[in-house]
Amino acid sequence: MPEAEFLFSEVAQYLRSEDVTQLKNAYSFGQGAHSGQYRKSGEPYISHPLAVARILGKLHMDAPTLTAALLHDVVEDTHISKEEISERFGESVAELVDGVSKLEKIKFQTQAEAQAENFRKMLLAMARDVRVILIKLADRLHNMQTLDVMRPEKQRSIARETLEIYAPIAHRLGLNNIYQELQELGFCYSYPLRYRVLVKATKAARGNRREIVGKIQDAIINKLKEAGLDAQVNGREKHIYSIYKKMAEKQLSFSEVLDIYGFRVIVKDAPACYVALGALHGLYRPIPGKFKDYIAIPKANGYQSLHSTLLGPFGIPMEMQIRTREMHRIAENGVASHWLYKSTDANLNDLHMKTNQWLQSLLETLSDSTDSMEFLEHMKIDLFPGDVYVFTPQGKILTLPRRSTAVDFAYAIHSDIGNCCVAAKINGENAPLRSELKSGDRVEIVTAPYAKPNPSWLSYVVTGRARSHIRRFLKTIQYDESVELGERMLNQALLTLNIDPSMINETQWEKLVRDSGAGSKKALLADMALGKQLPAVIAKRLISPLESVKSEQVSSDPITILGTEGLTVQFAKCCHPIPGDVIVGLIKKEHGLIIHAHNCQTITQSQKHSENYLDVAWGKDITRTFEVKIKVIAANKHGVLARIAAAIAKTESNIDDVAMESEKDYTAMSFILQIRNRHHLAQVMRDLRRIKDVAKITRV
């Protein structure tokens, strides 16, 4: 096969002769193992692993990686075992092949669950050896390059998985060429019509501007020569998916998308990058707010470059990327630069340290996640490029995903700091823990020794690390509470069916536990409290032998809510129910029992009549406080906020959060207050109405 000869001649340029011999043996072995197997295109199956090895050969990967690439499907698709590969090609190759292979044919409840478990296994292997994911990415790239033989619905499914998982992993590892090709192919097969329209529009724009772009490139080269710089200048066109994403995110038309064209300037060292930047700013006017310095603050994947968008002739916006040759190598090959170039470079070592930190956080998330779907959820969150750069009090830079909060920051430093955080200071000022961070913020976390994670944090944390640590902590302390609440919920469901709970004997419980696979009675009760099992369904399964001996009159009292149930009962943020409100309970998977006000707009009539609905009522003598949101419209006068805050304090209510929007004459203030009950809320609102400048108060 000619492709095999191309592979051997390409790798012979950097591998030892004995390594090339091993590759030839692996090719012959794989060809024999896949004998008689063909791809959907009709080609012999060996053409696929050969193509995967060639992709990795261009990254100058080592011999074990290329050997494993040639053999990556033999365990999954042939009679060859991992042990046989280990005997013939070594333990290292066998481990790589095993890491890339899918799970054995285990029966999962859903295709999504099987897919998630495959990702879990692959990423666990990747955390031990990053070469696993490099093989998997090359495997996915070749599959995407040959996707046209699949059915349209299969094409869309594979393409979306590529955009959601594989392209972001390639980006996270700094494999720029693979990342961009996966994105382009993923977009092409996910939205074929949109892709064709944008390709046509881009070609038209390119044709109209080709001559202008050539003149601009000449002007840049001459300007850099005048500045005494030896620079390489290349024209660069923005990728179709990148244009589409910008149009979708910012609601722009094609003609409004900036920097469809760009130029890459490569110079000898970092100081020359800044000299080149100054020269180009002298040639064309920079667009304000469109400059990013990734040299001083590199991206999490090690990427370094100066980015500046300039206004060229005829108002054409152009993005300039200025970097050194070393930076360009890392930008193109990322973590694979370790094999492509000598790893004595400080930037490469820093990149590998960051990659190792990310892989370690992956292992933590794997150990904290109870199931594969939960892990995949955390993984997807963490894969999207982080573009918020914040500082610790000591001046260390942390990279976090967009919309990250102070809680995410706390967990990024250490899980113990996250678990014990009670407040934050952002740029020296007190701020709520839910505050979203912006690039450049200096963040300090305040902790208390007896503080614990709050379930409400899960509604606003962004990073998988924070989410998994919070969930793990909550699961350990809420088990007993869950068992107690689950028992109360089941008793109510039994009473609704006119069955006295005391009539259920141990034999029935043992049968139900055995049939459900829960492990124990306590585990089953806890699952009900956490929304994993519906009390009404469990009650019906439990009483089937008792249906002929139903009690005539058994009253079904609502579940009493005291506010002291702990983490198994949560109060909805949409309606902020408080004692005195008529309330309903809804069971939500993984969240447990959520209490809503009866008239809450988010609850539909169908929900109120479903098995997820529970009859609940407030208990007596409730002493704790609850969150309530109110809106105050007041005159836009000096000191009005201080007078309102003082009035709230006099009623023994605390302010948890405040947001303000000012018009010319009036200010709208939204407060989240700590309130005991409806009487307490009425007192607060009465006292606020007495303030002269307050025009209107409403409970949100």
From TrEMBL:
The keyword Transferase applies. Residues 45-144 form the HD domain. It holds the Pfam family ACT_4. Keywords: Kinase, Transferase. One of its GO terms (biological process) is guanosine tetraphosphate metabolic process. The keyword Translocase does not apply. Residues 386-447 form the TGS domain. Coiled coil: none annotated. NCBIfam families: spoT_relA (TIGR00691). In eubacteria ppGpp (guanosine 3'-diphosphate 5'-diphosphate) is a mediator of the stringent response that coordinates a variety of cellular activities in response to changes in nutritional abundance. This is GTP pyrophosphokinase. It comes from Nitrosomonas aestuarii.
